Amino acid sequence: MIDSSNITAIILCGGQGARLNGLDKPLIDLGGKRVIECLLGRLESQADTLILSCSRNVALYEALGHQVVVDDTPHRGPLAGLHEAFNHVDSEWGLTLPGDVPFVPRSLVVRLQRDAELSGIAVPSVDGYRQNLCLLLNRPRMLELSEFYAGGGIAVKHWLDRIGARPTDLSDCAEDFLNINTDEDLTKATARFQLDIRGIA
């Protein structure tokens, strides 16, 4: 079993929000709580340590009370942020997530752990789409991914293809993997949050 006390969660908050007029997506308010706060609430029972990898609004992220790692090369994509954050991981396992997915399953680690134990890494698939930035991986796999980046690798999905990672199907909770990329996504996320706080969802 992979115990939460031996997991560090890394949340990638360095995106440029290009399709949302440059908004810092994890800091968007859903009507009472920011995206990043929703995500943190779902991860705190699944990991012992939380690291926020960001490239702007550093003080706002620091105010959340978790370790912040500044990504000085956001133009190089999320893999660069992971590479830097891995240097601050002391646990045997890492859980990585994009910062624009506010409703990830509270049972995410439990659902991924069997496959992670078998091959050192697990990545969910939802309705046939692999969630490339959502990974549960052990320390040797973290090292492999960092070496891939240092060798010129530019995307996590290319590394996953290279190692032949077999996704874990979590299509039964597809709605929990809603990520906010567009105005339509933001509308859906805001509606979901309002249902959640009223105890309907």
User: C-alpha Rg, in Å?
Assistant: 16 Å
The geometry reads as globular
Biggest sheet, in brief?
6 strands, mixed
Mean pLDDT: 93
Strand content: 15-25%
The assembly state of the depicted protein chains is single chain
Q: What strand line-up does the widest sheet have?
A: 3-2-1-4-8-5
Helical stretch tally? 7
Secondary structure: number of strands = 9
- Estimated structural class: alpha/beta
* Percentage of residues assigned to helices: 25-40%
Distance between the termini: 30 Å
Low-confidence stretches: none
Task: Please trace the helix and strand order, writing H or E for each element.
Answer: EHEHEHEHEEEEHHEH
Which key features would you list for this structure?
three-stranded mixed beta sheet; 7 helices; single chain; six-stranded mixed beta sheet; 201 residues; alpha/beta
Could you characterize what this model shows?
With 201 residues, the chain is an alpha/beta fold. The strands form 2 sheets. A 6-stranded mixed sheet has the order 3-2-1-4-8-5, with helices on both faces. A 3-stranded mixed sheet has the order 7-6-9, covered by helices on one side. Helix 3 packs across helix 5. The model has no long low-confidence stretch (mean pLDDT 93).
Briefly characterize the structure.
With 201 residues, the chain is α/β, with parallel strands linked by helices.
